[in-house]
Amino acid sequence: MPTTARWAATLTLTAAAVCGPLGGSALATPAHVTQTAETRTVTSQAHATPALAPSGLYAPSALVLTMGHGETAATVTPERAVTLNCAPTPSGTHPAAYDACAELRGVNGNFDALTLRDGALCTRQFDPVVVTVEGVWRGKRVAYERTFANECVKNSYGTSFFTF
Hints:
Strands 4-3-5-6 form a four-stranded antiparallel sheet. The chain is 20% helix and 26% strand. It has three helices and six strands.
């Protein structure tokens, strides 16, 4: 297969996997199939249907969070990575997906608004930890990087978003 065709096939499959069935035959009225020994007949239900509506009632919110020891994301090897999907329902590999989504909705997706929790006690040991967040929040692309003094401080910000 020529390289151009391979790329086209790869992009088509990737788009189908990411976007899901947004239109076309996936949303069409199901067809009734009747099969006999001699013939195979396919009849579709004919309905006067309006134009296809959007496939969802929510903007996508899917994030990938990474964590590694170091001072910048450019120099750090990610040690942990989790996924967080907040729409339509909280899910992903984040250990507290429901709470993390609720916390992020509470600050309207502003990662900097997640502040140090009252009463958090951490040592002053300097062992920097970098957290990156990339993906889509309510339909908009986001890319965020934050360096914490150590892992205890990272876990003390907000209630559950950074605790992974």
